[in-house]
Amino acid sequence: MTDTVERQPVIIETDAGALELVLMIRKMERRHESAPTLLGGDRIGIEAEIEVETSDQKGPTYFLSRLTGETDWVIDAKFGANGFPHCSHGFGSRVTIPRGLPDEICDLLDSEARNRGMVRAIGRGTPLQLAG
């Protein structure tokens, strides 16, 4: 398991202009969860926990996953700044409509996975391939 609380700035381009956020990656690790074939079979990929803030307030905490072969990060759980659960599914659950985050946040997560040596391939539209 690799943990960090390094604060990383992210700028999201919206129709209303640029939104400046600060992203903290609380956890990023490779994960393998066994599941019966009936429920989709084993889930292998990367799990990340991130906290998002604006310049003046704490934001939500997200639990994300990207499974082997997937091209996007998917929200598994979201908790408000006060800890209120907005949604909570298990690691790699794809039983509901997958929801993601803005490309700029996903790009930062992809880069972090590369920097940690966790992947052979990752990126926008690139299926996840885990390293060794």
Mean pLDDT level: 89
Which spans of ≥5 residues are poorly predicted at pLDDT below 50? Answer: none
Oligomer state of the chains in this structure:
single chain
Radius of gyration: 15 Å
Strand content: over 45%
The share of residues in helices is under 10%
Overall 3D form: globular
Q: Biggest sheet, in brief?
A: 6 strands, antiparallel
Structural class: mainly beta
Order of strands across the main sheet: 1-2-3-4-5-6
* Helix-strand pattern: EEEEEEHEE
Strand elements, count: 8
> Count of helices?
1
Q: How many angstroms does the end-to-end distance come to? A: 15 Å
What does this molecule look like?
- The chain contains one helix and eight strands.
- With 132 residues, the chain is mainly β.
- The longest helix has 13 residues, at 103-115.
- The protein is globular.
